[in-house]
Amino acid sequence: MNIHTVSTTPYSDQRPGTSGLRKKVKHFQQPHYLENFVQSLFDCLGELTGKTLVLGGDGRYYNPEAIQIILKMAAANKVGRVLVGREGLFSTPAVSCVIRRYKALGGIILSASHNPAGPEGDFGIKYNISNGGPAPESVTDAIYARSKEIDRYLMVEAEDIPLDSLGIRNLAGMAVEIVNPLADYAELMEELFDFPRIKTLFDTGVFHMHFDAMHAVTGPYAKEILEHRLGADPDTVLNSEPLPDFGGGHPDPNLVYAKSLVAKMYRGNAPSFGAASDGDGDRNMILGKRFFVTPSDSLAILAANAHHIPGYRLGLAGIARSMPTSRAADRVAEALGIECFETPTGWKFFGNLLDAGKVTLCGEESFGTGSDHLREKDGLWAALFWLNILAVRRQSVEAIVREHWANCGRNFYSRHDYEDLPADLSQQLMEDLRKQLPTLKGKRFGQREVILADDFSYTDPIDHSLTTGQGIRLCFEDDARIIYRLSGTGTEGATLRVYLETFEPDPARHDLDTQVALASLIQIADHVAQIQQRTGRAQPSVIT
Ligand code: G6P
Ligand code: ZN
């Protein structure tokens, strides 16, 4: 066997962010860049002999090349077996599912999630551990530390492995098993949801839906599950073919980017239900006929309706949401008599709670929802959860949401993003906010009094690890909140996110436009942080 030891020098910028290492494709194509990171990972994983890894990506540009490099490095590092999705495809939730089902050591996912792809776009690599979830900070810190001192990597010299047909191949003693990336995931969905009942809903002939795969990885999954197994119309899945540049689009499931779906859901004879997922299949957006469900409301409503779903019929152990996510779910948890955990932004913070059986459902305002069925957020799962609720309740999406608000009150919620700011300017803005914290508590802004002002920190209740500096929180007497936080996922400049939330118990006021309902809070947010003045921006670049 031909194992080469290749000398290399470290790169200083391989610290994984909120969700793995993400850079421009061109950055990854620098000599030894990908190899350095992969070897740093292998060096941190301990004994690899006889171990199984899962490998695949969202189909974006540079995926096929990266897969061949990683396979040859895995063989040289004595990995026992690698399960690779056919054509190199695997959604993030499917990797999580397969790691768990086959008790793999972990999985490597090639994706920059919803970031645009293509030669000028982004590429990314993230590692998931044996519970199927994103590597915790202890692991990513170790990889980063290793990447700063790496001086060699290992690689076998061999032909590329064809990825287009199922079967087992031998790569310098390592088994490369090309598997159907849909099979285990689709089976798991059948275990959780009432497929016969959802089928009946489609059989009525009056219920129609669309799922926008945005030319990314969920196309084949959605076609298999919605159209083939559940009997939805053959044109249900939009943009179903994964393309290396995602068709030039930006596969982020929100009202701005999921254009094909939004056009269909907001026209006269719109279908009853719409959903979209992102590049790697973990995010979701839920729409009714001319109606948008915020991710925070979606989490609360899934929790309140979980008893209708076979996989959750026994009840929820607890709920977890990221700190900036609205507190709609907290009200459901209270009504159900279960605990609601508040974690820093990033799915990895749910892992310990899920493993310890403390929570069943988790969600984030950033269009992520999931459960203990695996250890990632899961876009198609969220759509199926909603479909199952619709099949049982036979009401419209809007009616279900309005009934929920009437029962629990409405948390008006919006996120204002200021994208592409100079890094030093945004850091200074946050620093100055931090300095203001001691003087903010007790301060009044119009009718509102600040009752809590802090920089969010989190002690994991399971392993007691402490995570600090997770966003500036201002909580007011009337249950309103403002949160300031810098994005951890960008590849260019800095993005300031301002999260705004008020609580409205009165159903007569539930029809207000969100931005109108939040207007006075928006003013306070600008006044405290001097956003307009400091950034020179009259308004946010994106409002969700
Ligand atoms: C990724 C992670 C999510 C997280 C989001 C936040 O999508 O998987 O768990 O909520 O990033 O992104 P941000 O840009 O706000 O750091
Ligand atoms: Zn994603």
Automatic annotation (TrEMBL):
> Where is each Alpha-D-phosphohexomutase alpha/beta/alpha domain found?
14-152, 184-287, 296-407
Asked whether the keyword Transit peptide is assigned, the reply is: no
Mind telling me which GO cellular component terms the entry cites?
cytosol
Please name the Pfam families in this protein's record. Answer: PGM1_C_vert_fung, PGM_PMM_I, PGM_PMM_II, PGM_PMM_III
Q: What are the protein's GO molecular function terms?
A: magnesium ion binding; phosphoglucomutase activity
Q: What InterPro entries does this protein map onto?
A: A-D-PHexomutase_a/b/a-I, A-D-PHexomutase_a/b/a-I/II/III, A-D-PHexomutase_a/b/a-II, A-D-PHexomutase_a/b/a-III, A-D-PHexomutase_C_sf, A-D-PHexomutase_CS, Alpha-D-phosphohexomutase_SF, PGM
Where is region (Disordered) located? 1-22
Q: What processes does the entry annotate via GO biological process terms?
A: glucose metabolic process
Cofactor(s) the protein requires to work:
Mg(2+)
Say which family it is in.
Belongs to the phosphohexose mutase family.
Name under which the protein is recorded: phosphoglucomutase (alpha-D-glucose-1,6-bisphosphate-dependent)
Species of origin:
Nitrosococcus halophilus (strain Nc4)
